[in-house]
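thought: user wants a sequence for this fold. calling inverse folding tool.
action: design(structure=
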């Protein structure tokens, strides 16, 4: 008997209670990272860092599992593996009905970021990859060029006598910026970023300690300010004086925290998957890379729910 996967505002393994990053309240959903919106699911399966980062999850609802520690729910054997894109990001390997399904979520760079442990490859027959909202870099060289571009922009802003402020994801990109900062640079960060930084330290990531970013503070051009992109329209941002705002998405930094198209192609091959489904905003770009190299399954969205169907170019 083969696995029966259904997509209906989240991936579901039919015949079980298990959903993956469900977008509606479900009996049980795996949460691949704290970047996902967490709803009032009956039970939430996640890694320990994700459980810490996600607020408002009661102990009775959370099923917290460490990486590479297998456990069973019903007839399923489950194992979490690092996904490498952000603290706590996890893949879920499901062994069920004699098959191995790997839901990877969004995968980080294969060689790892400076702020989190690298992705771990698990062998499987069926692989489901989620892709991020931001465009994927084609190669790691292109991704690293984004960081070099940021360095040049910081120098230009400081040369004009203004203080650079980077709008970025409070979880993931902000911490990678801290890990890559120039030695001796004083960093001021919004409290949401500081909260995430503390959780990184709790799990052994030695991040530079930041000062709190206050709206009425005085800043030096040599400093670096970090502000959540989700609060980019906040009046408090408009009150900051003599700063120049840089957008991490426009600089390519948000994309640089994910595996590139080249890396995802290598990741798929290393899992040994016979069938691959791709979800998310960048699925077309990845499907084009994988065409002719493996059996592809794409997401169709009929009127009554969504089913996996063979990919047609």
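)
observation: tool returned 313 residues.
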């Amino acid at each position: 008997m083969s696995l029966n996967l259904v997509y209906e505002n989240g991936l579901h393994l039919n015949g079980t209670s298990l959903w993956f990053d469900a977008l509606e309240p479900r009996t049980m959903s795996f949460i691949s990272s704290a970047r996902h919106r967490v709803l009032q699911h009956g039970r939430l399966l996640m890694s320990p860092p994700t459980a810490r980062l996600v607020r408002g999850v009661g102990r009775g609802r959370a099923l917290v599992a460490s990486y590479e520690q297998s456990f069973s729910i019903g007839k399923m054997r489950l194992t979490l593996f690092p996904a490498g894109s952000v603290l706590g990001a996890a893949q879920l390997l499901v062994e069920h009905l004699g098959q191995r399904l790997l839901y990877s979520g969004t995968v980080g760079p294969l060689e790892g970021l400076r702020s989190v442990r690298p992705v771990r490859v698990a062998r499987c027959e069926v692989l489901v990859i989620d892709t991020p909202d931001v465009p994927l870099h084609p190669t790691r060289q292109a991704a690293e060029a984004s960081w070099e571009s940021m360095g040049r922009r910081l120098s230009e802003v400081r040369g004009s006598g203004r203080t650079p402020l980077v709008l970025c994801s409070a979880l993931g990109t902000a911490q990678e910026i801290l890990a890559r900062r120039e030695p001796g640079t004083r960093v001021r960060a919004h409290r949401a970023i500081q909260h995430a930084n503390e959780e990184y330290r709790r799990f052994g990531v030695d991040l530079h300690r930041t000062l709190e970013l206050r709206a009425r503070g005085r800043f030096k051009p040599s400093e670096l300010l970090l502000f959540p992109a989700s609060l980019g329209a906040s009046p408090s941002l408009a009150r900051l004086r003599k700063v120049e705002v840089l957008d991490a998405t426009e600089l390519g930094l948000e994309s640089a925290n994910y595996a590139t198209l080249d890396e995802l192609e290598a990741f798929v091959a290393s899992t040994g998957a016979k069938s691959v489904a791709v979800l998310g905003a960048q699925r077309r770009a990845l499907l084009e890379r994988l065409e002719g190299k493996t059996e592809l399954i794409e997401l169709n969205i009929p009127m009554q729910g969504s089913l996996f169907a063979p990919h047609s170019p």
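thought: summarizing for user.
answer: Here is the designed sequence. The chain has a mean pLDDT of 90.
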